[in-house]
Amino acid sequence: SDPTSSFQRNYDLVIGTNVVHATSNIIKTCSRLKDLLRGDGIIALSEVTCIINWYDIVFGLLEGWWCAEDGRDYPLQPSEYWIRTLGNAGFSDCAVSDGTGKEGEAQKIVVGRKASQPPPSVDDYHGKSSSITAQEISHGMPPRRRQIDPELRKTTESEVATVVYKTVGDLSIHADIIYPKSRESVQPRPIVLMIHGGGHMIFSRKDVRPHQTKYLLNRGMLPISLDYRLCPESNLLNGAMSDICDALSWARTELPDIVAASGMTVDKSKVLVMGWSTGATLAMSTAWTAPAMGVVPPNAIMAFYGPSDYEAPVWQESRSGGYSRPEMTDAEIKSHLFDRPISHYDILIKDPALGGMQRGDPRSELVLATFHSQNHVQILLHGFDTPHREAAESHPKAADISPLAHVRKGTYRTPTFILHGDADEVVPVEQSRLFVDALRERGVPSGILVAEGKSHIYDLFMKFGTEEWERDVQPGFDFVEGFVG
Asked: Among candidates 163, 162, 164, 160, which has minimal Cα distance to 181?
């Protein structure tokens, strides 16, 4: 609320530490804090400006952590957001600290001086959204649900049970079954296997989309997030792709008994596999790996901005855009590789500008080096031995890991919906367009949503029910729910 008259224009300095982000409308809050200041008073805010996983584990359990009503999809925001917000609230000469090290990058001091001219009304900013539209192409789609069920806007509380779905030697590979706390559902729930991204080299089952997980629960589905063996300690074909295929088999055979013991039932005949970035490639791989292994393929696949053509020249070229180049040498990176297979690698402090990686972290440096290597596919299939030698035109086994090649071969027949931003700096959107064109030519039910102006991992903090979600995410769920809902 507005400060009382006794507090207005009575202070030279306002200090806040990790508090303003927890208000429902940051611009309104900063504008009211400005009213406390004298003519050229200063505001100094100490705020966390990057994603830190344990914050969600702790504070994410509190309702106030998710109280934003100003268009934010997540309480913590980068430095640029705070600079822009202070300006919109009527401050000038805004600046942010430039500390070094992990602590300096994670926690910033944002300062601003009370401007002499009033800004536009803060109400002008509340609920504003861009006029970006999406292009959508679909083929063989079932009728789509156009209205959001009001029940979807309610929060579904959940709890996680971690199980082992596969063992390879001494390595146990885990899955998180995300149950609703209330297990009174009478209808068996369709199964959703969720696959994280990370260049096939980094992250874990904990790195999936929280808002999409809640959506799936509210729609009466059972989300399950998967670990898998990471490259380059394991090769992509016999490691990750094999693991995800086995996870699909496990979901249809062993999972029903595990869930039944918790008091719920699942419909093993309805399985959706969805993934993000390289996790989307793994999701798509089930379309051909499952039938080859005698496993029933998924009913539908939902793939966010994943590589679909590893035969494309982009994987044999030095990249000019996308992620920055690594700081560590190849020898330094190689010295930090594990001498055994691993199935997860977590980063405590994530940098959104690096796709959740952290500069100086050896595994992040591995991903950056591979991204800029001319032998990207070689590394995924044979290890990090010669990442920068002169590339061949195309690796002979690139087709084996490429969804597009399998469509052209006739071994990909699973209904698939692709979501991809046209400003993606990591995976060219043209790959997704060509992939869906090939599916349509072969009569495979398919669809694509190209989100205009959106970059890689654009959906990370989108909440269901918002205009942005409706435009850039919901059509994909509408499509796949026609096959598993």
From this structure: 160
Q: Please indicate, yes or no, whether the overall pTM of this predicted structure exceeds 0.85.
A: no
Average pLDDT over residues 137-141: 56
Q: Which residue has the higher pLDDT, 121 or 255?
A: 255
Question: What is the rounded distance in angstroms from the CA atom of residue 86 to the CA atom of residue 386?
Answer: 48
- Summarised one tens digit per residue, pLDDT across range 38-89 is 887 899 999 988 777 677 777 777 777 878 877 676 888 887 778 778 877 7
Assess contact for 330 and 232: CB atoms under 8 A: no
